Structure formats: C-alpha cells, structure tokens
Amino acid sequence: MPSRVPHATAWTVFDPADHPSPQADQPEASPQAAEPGTSGSADGGHSAIFEGASGLRALLSPRFVLGIVRDFYSRRMAWAALLISALFLAYGGGAVMFWYHAIYLGEGGPAISHWQHWLLDSSAGFIGLLPAIALILPLAGWISAHAKDDQLRQTLYVIAGGAAFALVTAPGPFLHDALVGRGTWVATQVTTWWGDGRAPLPQAEPVSVVAEVARQVALGLPLYILVMAIALIVVRAVVRTRHTT
C-alpha cells in the first residue's frame, strides 16, 4: 500500500475539508515521537511508519493502533459517526441477518413475534459489537487515507470496514445461540414478557460449524459493505450540515 496522502487522516473520509496543519504530518526527530501511537507521531508519523513492510507490521502494534484511535475520537463528531454507524450495522444489517437466519433458514428462536425477535437480537448485537465498531471505524478510515481522491477514499473505507465487520461477526450465530437463543435465560424472560404462544417456533436444522460460518460471511461481506456505505453517506451529510450551521 502506498504512503498516506499528505494531510489525510482517519477522519478525512468523513470530512474531506478536515486537514491538520502540514507540521502534523512530519514526525519529530526524537525517538519518542517516531514511535507509532504516541502523541508526538499522532496520525502524521503513521505515513513514515507505514512505508514498506514495516508499515504493515506497525498495524500489529497496540501503541500504533491506539494512536490512530485516539486521534480519530479527539473530534466530537467522531462519536456521532460511531453511533450512526453502529445503529445502521446493528439494526439495519441485523434486520437482514434476522430475516436470513430466523425466517429464510428457519433457525427458530424465542416464541415471540418477528419484530420483537429482531429488536432483541439487534439490541444485543449493538451492545456487544459496539467496541469492535469503535475500532473498525478509525482503522478503516486510516487505511482509506492512502487514496489519492475522495471517491477512492470512500470506496476503500466501506470495503475495509465492511469486510472487517463481516469477519468479526462470523461467529455471530453461535454467540447468539449462547446468549439470547432458544432455551437461554434471556430468551425465557422475553418469552414470558412478550410471548403469546402463537409465534412461529420452527425446529432448527443443525449444520456444521464450517457451513454456518461460511454462509454468515458470504452474506455478511456484501451486506456490511453496503451498510457501511449508507452509514458513511449519512455521517458525511451530518458533518456537512454541522459545517453550515
């Protein structure tokens, strides 16, 4: 991957007008400033570190990643971007995944209505996946900062972010069954509160772990790339509105 475009940061994909000063892109001469993830390098030192194979290895450094994340969330609007993206991924993407698993594949669930089942699953996903989304956004944004134009930057962001989220949610069906699936304490409680005995309760057909993960990722890749694109459009619109007010 080429060096980071001058003045581009992990936030640039959301706000192309947001450019740090040129000095911010030049790492200081001190050894401390040159280390990834430190306040001295902030996002600027990342371009120097990323050059060549050493840059790829830098992504494995917790201090390097921390620097990207810290710089990203130093902006108040980044927290709005996180909330908007998480809502779209958890409830929008979750609606498609619910239809696929509970209705199309007939995997079953608590004896409650489909709307309540979707709300339960998506709310659990929102809470459980929020930390992962909080990490994916700045890292995908930082990767996109290597693009030379805004359109390519957006494309890189949605592909990187959507693919990362699809991989993170690959074990989702198993976690769902363990936490809120049929027979769990949560499922029993919501069935007691909301169940009326008439909700569909099909018998789930067992499949292998490999098959379950494969079909989860196969649907998740295009789905979450699309949802990331929609969320990005909404966040950029909010940012533009903020600039004009």
UniProtKB/TrEMBL annotation:
Protein name from the UniProt record: Uncharacterized protein
Annotated segments matching region Disordered: 1-44
Bilayer-spanning residue ranges: 78-103, 123-143, 155-175, 221-239
UniProt keyword terms in alphabetical order: Membrane, Transmembrane, Transmembrane helix
